[in-house]
Specification:
This protein has 68 residues and is of the alpha+beta class. It contains two helices and three strands.
Length: 68
């Protein structure tokens, strides 16, 4: 699904796609990294979870007009 969305973004002429993901969601982070996203930063205590505590989020990005 991520690859389909990225291809659509390329088809639309976008240069870059960014996303934000909870840092502890290691499965999602790995999926995004395998797709070509890179971690660009961490934002502390951004997400208030169901466990009633705050969690960091990672900012990830991919430049679309570079080879994957």
């Amino acid at each position: 699904m991520t690859n389909i969305i990225l291809q659509e973004a390329r088809d639309q002429g976008l240069h870059k796609v960014n996303l934000e993901v909870v840092a502890e969601n290691t499965i999602a982070v790995r999926v995004y990294e395998k797709t070509g996203f890179k971690i660009e930063g961490r934002i502390m205590d951004t997400y208030y979870g169901e466990d009633e505590s705050y969690h960091d989020t990672l900012m990830m990005g991919i430049i679309l007009d570079e080879p994957a």
